[in-house]
Amino acid sequence: MHQMSIANLLSVTAALCLSVTAAAAAPEVTLTAPKTAWTLGTAQSAETTVRAAGLPASGPVRFALEGAGAGTGATKISAVFGGFKAGSSTLKLNVGAEVPVGTYPLVVRATSGSLTTTLALQVNVERWLLVDADRSENNAVVTAAHRPDPKAKESALDTLMKQTLAGRAFDIYAVKRGSMTSDLPTIGGPGIATLRKYSGVLWYTGNQDYQIPLEQDLINLRTFLDDDARKLILSAPALVVNMAGAANVFQTTEPDANDLPAQREQRAFLKAVFGAAGYHGAYARDAYQVTPVAGSPLGAFGSLDVSGGNSLRVGFYPLDEPSVQRLVTGPLLNQQNIKSVGAVALGRHGLGPSHTSSGVFLGISPDVIKSPRVRAILQALLAF
Q1: Is the domain of 254 the same as that of 346?
Q2: What does the alpha-carbon distance between residue 78 and residue 93 come to, in Å, rounded to a whole number?
Q3: Higher confidence at residue 141 or residue 21?
Q4: Domain that holds residue 344
Q5: 255 contacts 267 by C-beta, under 8 angstroms
Q6: 62, 93, 125 — which closes off a domain?
Q7: pLDDT 10s digits, 271-284
Q8: Is the dihedral of CA 229, 384, 44, 123 positive or negative?
Q9: What are the pLDDT digits (tens) for 158-196?
Q10: From CA 77, how far away is CA 66, in angstroms rounded?
Q11: Sequence-separated (6 or more) residues with CB below 8 Å from residue 374
């Protein structure tokens, strides 16, 4: 009987100890938010709601934004937290006007007394460079900063391309209209130091067949794509039409012993950046249709009408590699009037040492696509 009492006493004591230990254990504290990753331009903002579990339902709770990119000023990402009520607080992230492009891992830390918890965030800061090289009226004279002539009328294509980047942070670089013989190299595009300030480049030459990106431009663009997570969207049918000459047949991007240095770079550029095994350039006399490829970013758009009138039309045969994707196909006609199909838009992922950059070549000028959705089509290419 006496032994039973001792056993009972020990049992009760153990239960009390467990109860005290459980009561003293720190509550589980967690932070959540409906969105934790954003792509923002410089000088842009985003908002979300941070919800806390395990903290007092109302203050005092202190929030802070941490990480190498966090702080105040033009080169940092700052945070403004609202009051903590009913277990949540609003968060507004502000990207400074001079934050370099790139991906920034950040952390929200919430502290209440001895309790603290964190939430991981990520901000991808982007800025685009729109390279206007269509030889239109506002390219005849450009400013010292390579902006289009503010006194000249912009072309319809200029307007369309600016609308394509609406809502994104971007700058314009105007390529001066000039002679491909006597004005070199002053009619080239942006240098590599300029390109590296941007996450993406949208470069267009229009429906003209004379002025093309220079050899140094192609070298600079390849170097640009060696950086992490860079994008190039190039609509330059004049480049390929000049390469193809009057042959009007598919030609290879493999090097030729008779190539001049510029020709070698052009072939290497098309192959390395866009995955082109062969190219074809011609003038389309009659209107025709192109077809976005199912499963590509443009697959939902359906067939598109394109103007003739000797508009430039470029097609590619792609390399047989997983990183290369036909985006839009269209008809081509060789000198023997034999019809073929080529990729008039070709894209390639996995560029650069880190395999995070991408390139898209659009082989027709956007202003010859007769669709009210042409802006949406171009925006889909930006997302490739």
Answers
A1: yes
A2: 6
A3: 141
A4: 127-382
A5: yes
A6: 125
A7: 999 999 999 998 99
A8: negative
A9: 999 999 999 999 999 999 999 999 999 999 999 999 999
A10: 10
A11: 160, 366
